[in-house]
Specification:
Shape: globular
Largest sheet: 3 strands, mixed
Number of strands: 3
CATH class: Alpha Beta
Distance between the termini: 22 Å
Oligomer: single chain
Number of domains: 1
Helix content: 40-55%
Number of helices: 3
Order of helices and strands: HEEHHE
Strand content: 25-35%
C-alpha cells in the first residue's frame, strides 16, 4: 500500500524527491501520511479536494485486499 501511494504522490508533485509516505499501523485502522513540499500541497489536495478524494478512493479499493481500514493524511514539510 505504501509503495502504491508513494508512486502516485511522486507523479503528482513537482518535487518528487521530497515526497515521504509513512504508514502508522494500529489494530483496526492504519493511517497513511503523505508529506510533500509546501509548494506541492495544493496539487495533492486538488481543486475542491478532488485529487485527495481520488487517492482516498484508490486506498479504499485496495484496502479490501488487506481487509483493513486506512485513513489518509496529507502534510507539508
Amino acid at each position: 500500500m505504501k509503495d502504491l501511494i508513494l508512486t502516485i504522490a511522486k507523479a503528482i508533485c513537482d518535487k518528487p524527491e521530497l515526497v515521504e509516505v509513512n504508514e502508522i499501523p494500529s489494530s483496526s485502522a492504519s493511517i497513511i501520511e503523505i508529506k510533500v513540499a509546501k509548494e506541492d500541497l495544493g496539487k495533492m489536495i486538488g481543486k475542491q479536494g478532488k485529487t485527495a478524494c481520488s487517492i482516498r478512493n484508490i486506498i479504499y479499493a485496495v484496502s479490501f485486499k488487506f481487509q483493513k481500514r486506512y485513513t489518509l493524511e496529507i502534510l507539508a514539510h
